[in-house]
Amino acid sequence: xxxxxxxxxxxxxxxxxxxxxxxxxxxxxxxxxxxxxxxxxxxxxxxxxxxxxxxxxxxxxxxxxxxxxxxxxxxxxxxxxxxxxxxxxxxxxxxxxxxxxxxxxxxxxxxxxxxxxxxxxxxxxxxxxxxxxxxxxxxxxxxxxxxxxxxxxxxxxxxxxxxxxxxxxxxxxxxxxxxxxxxxxxxxxxxxxxxxxxxxxxxxxxxxxxxxxxxxxxxxxxxxxxxxxxxxxxxxxxxxxxxxxxxxxxxxxxxxxxxxxxxxxxxxxxxxxxxxxxxxxxxxxxxxxxxxxxxxxxxxxxxxxxxxxxxxxxxxxxxxxxxxxxxxxxxxxxxxxxxxxxxxxxxxxxxxxxxxxxxxxxxxxxxxxxxxxxxxxxxxxxxxxxxxxxxxxxxxxxxxxxxx
Amino acid sequence: xxxxxxxxxxxxxxxxxxxxxxxxxxxxxxxxxxxxxxxxxxxxxxxxxxxxxxxxxxxxxxxxxxxxxxxxxxxxxxxxxxxxxxxxxxxxxxxxxxxxxxxxxxxxxxxxxxxxxxxxxxxxxxxxxxxxxxxxxxxxxxxxxxxxxxxxxxxxxxxxxxxxxxxxxxxxxxxxxxxxxxxxxxxxxxxxxxxxxxxxxxxxxxxxxxxxxxxxxxxxxxxxxxxxxxxxxxxxxxxxxxxxxxxxxxxxxxxxxxxxxxxxxxxxxxxxxxxxxxxxxxxxxxxxxxxxxxxxxxxxxxxxxxxxxxxxxxxxxxxxxxxxxxxxxxxxxxxxxxxxxxxxxxx
Lengths: 404, 347
Fold this sequence. Notes:
The complex is a heterodimer of chains A (404) and B (347). Chain A is of the alpha/beta class and 404 residues long. Chain A has twelve helices and 13 strands. Chain A is globular, with a radius of gyration of 20 Å. Chain B has a ten-stranded mixed sheet with strand order 3-2-4-5-1-6-10-9-7-8, sandwiched between helices. Chain B is globular and about 60 Å long. Chain B starts with a strand and ends with a strand. At the A-B interface, helix 4, helix 5, strand 5, helix 6 and helix 7 of A face helix 3, helix 4, helix 5, strand 3 and helix 6 of B.
């Protein structure tokens, strides 16, 4: 029988906190990280809200634990900050002490920095130390800088499946553990805000000028965010032998493709339905046992209809409590799956359900509404966390309370 | 990764005439521009005209190679789709960066943004095939295709009957220039036919789209078995040498990613020392150097293992095989960072 996969360490940085405790604090206070950008060079600076990490890149070097040096992009620094916390949380002082893999996720690599230098990079008349950023043009750069800084050498990979990237990173790591390839994996993703991505989503008319309103009838789009999150996954046998502190179990997961449209989900949520159903089947959980769903809930017109329909199809008239935490963190794309996996663990650990901020009016297409107030003292045993992306990529994770 | 899988079908768009016809009678395409560009096929038999107009080059190459591979496989049920690409659609990325600047962030066409997303080729394949199975894209330089291969072998172990596994990469003029600024390419114009005679810093650029249908069990059509493979990240020469020796007994033939780059030639010399006297064939003079060149190398290796012959016109001065190739070692690395060793066996 395949090994169970336990989560033994978590680390994150988002617009609402530099670490897990900071995130939990602001979730409890119901304080959103949305606002206007200080660091992106865009005409939409004061027009389109974003959830930006409240530090200039210079200050991020300290959080990342590296000396200020060219070539370290904001993507890398956010990743390192989250990575440091995840390792510390798992009690790992030397990643080499046990063979440990690293699966990272990124949508645009170091674009946050390279987009500012790109026209110099392609101009033969310009030269200087900025050329050190050339390597940061791709997605592997942040992964390798993080790996080299903390010492991963066993297995490294970077996944890019748009908004489901880090959910897929977690899945890939869990599968490597189950197949007995490595006893320990660190998986997650990192994303920095860029003018490139902001204009991309804006050109798709997918960005709300107000703070995003997931599952609300009046919603008009998403707000982008930035951040990073990593989870330490361990095989059951290793975790027991190592006496690891177990935070939760990654009990189920599924990746499906919707094969419907390059950027839109199907109106009935076929992909979301399949992903949730198969992930639940793997976890062995019944529909009734699901305590909470951290929905993808981007607040785009299409996502919320599709995901909502999928929930109704799967759960009938007994849809569990659900909320989107995107109004806190913005949509952090490649980091979203890992950030929300950590929120799912926090829900289990603290018996709380986070409110879906900015909701006021139920969607006409649906009979369900999200949780709108912070619920405390609510027993949470099994959580579904959804991440759906461009290219029809759908990923659902099931995170379960550890009960021995 | 232990556990065998089998190459049921393959398709490659490359700088050589690999997409159609018999490669064993094909001539060697050559240039001294230090950039080996793909010979692009007629896409119309694969992609409807209205879709074709919107798609940029690497999307067309990727999708077409994937569809050809699916046709060749004879397998009609779609299965998991796993790919690797180091850079995705450079043309779209470059275009969107420029349009943001040119149009001052207003009235932008979203198409280049959508197509620049690394998993867009995967999405198109799934859409075209109505394939709702597992779908993943790895974007990690010289570990992009290799992680896709690993993922595919894991899927086969988990019970999938087959996977569509591939890689795609393009080189644009702009990106060629960018990488020249950090020493990726040779300074002097180098004819690809002479690549290995000019040991100097840098290599020559290339591109390609290569897809494989992998199965968990052999069929009469199988090209070769992938018996084992291993990735090594930034090894020392010593560590590489130890890994190579532990990886396999001396094979019948070695295919290497040698590329004339004096900066990283020492890794290939480690290989020479590990397996002295075993015949070797390098492949980078055929496809150039790029993140996912390993997929092309594997394609070539599988062709040779199945046909038990070498496309001699591609290897001037090399004799046809004199003994059967039962086992083949494939070794490649990307600028000294991501190393892969893979064992192919005759089915």
